[in-house]
Amino acid sequence: MKTILHKANTRGHANHGWLNSYHTFSFANYYNPDRVHFGALRVLNDDTIAGGTGFGTHPHDNMEIVSIPISGALEHKDSMGNTAVIQSGEVQVMSAGTGIFHSEYNKQKDEATKFLQIWVFPNRKNVTPRYDQISIRDLEKENEFFQILSPSTEDEGVWVHQQAWFNLGNFTNDTETSYQLHDENSGLYVFVLKGNVEVEGNELTDRDGLGIWETNSVAFKAEKDTQLLLMEVPMN
User: Fold this and answer.
1) Radius of gyration of the chain, Cα coordinates, nearest whole angstrom
2) Number of domain units in the chain
3) Is residue 7 part of a domain?
4) Which residues are CB-contacts of 71 (< 8 A; sequence separation ≥ 6)?
5) For the whole model, what pTM was predicted?
6) Are 165 and 201 contained in the same domain?
7) What are the distances in angstroms from CA 191 to CA 6, 75, 139, 168, 220?
8) Domain check: are 113 and 155 in the same one?
């Protein structure tokens, strides 16, 4: 088993006033040659958008883009004709493929919106762009992990063009559990949304990240009131 620890206070940071963003991996003006990606996981941004502001129309291509709102709501518009609002309890996915334009705005004037912006390298290039969002409220479980993303249209959660699986865990009690990886060539990136957890001997707290690979199983000891995001991705 190999691991790499990214403490919250070592992330890249950019505060633009309207946008306060923390970058686990190199992004925009933040570049760290040792933190460009974790396998197929390219971007993990922890964003806060001030009320009444947002990202203007901009392009993407050949990337799987996943947005997970933590609080508040974002209005999404894109060149495929989609207009939607995503909020806490939902997950949004875009396959940028051959190219899309989109914008994201916080329509709430007096309340900030917090969300995770995640990019995953696809296993197929130049696919037809697509958009989807779902509620994950019916998938939620307490004190165990539940899947919110996979490579399959037939599985729980949204799907992406990659052998990737995302899980959330909401632990209301002190809990010992484990996660079994789907593929021996995958790695698991653990991101702590809140709380405290021990992962294979590593103590993690709010917004810490831990990458783990060359193993089939990962053990967790989560304290109560802890929320985790697990991202299993190919390492090559």
Assistant:
1) 17
2) 2
3) no
4) 88, 112, 113, 114
5) 0.97
6) yes
7) 9, 25, 19, 10, 12
8) no
Q: What are the distances in angstroms from CA 133 to CA 10, 65, 89, 94, 144?
A: 31, 12, 11, 9, 23
Tell me the CB-side half-sphere exposure of residue 76, using CA atoms within 13 A.
24
Measure the CA–CA gap between 151 and 203, rounded to whole angstroms.
30
Element (H, E) at 23: strand 19-23
Q: Encoding tokens for residue 6?
A: 């990214």
* CA-wise closest residue to 1 among 234, 228, 219: 219
Share of the chain above pLDDT 70, in %: 100
Six token digits for residue 57: 């129309």
The strand pairing partners of 199, in sequence order, are 202, 220
Question: Do 205 and 157 belong to one domain?
Answer: yes
Shared domain for 107 and 159, answered yes or no, is no
Tell me: do 20 and 130 sit in the same domain.
yes
Check whether residue 79 and residue 25 sit in a common domain: yes
Buried b (16+ CB within 10 A) or exposed e, 212-224: bbebeebebbbee
- Structural domain harbouring 164: 145-234
Give the pLDDT confidence of 63-120 residue by residue, as tens digits: 999 999 999 999 999 999 999 999 999 999 999 999 999 999 998 899 999 999 999 9
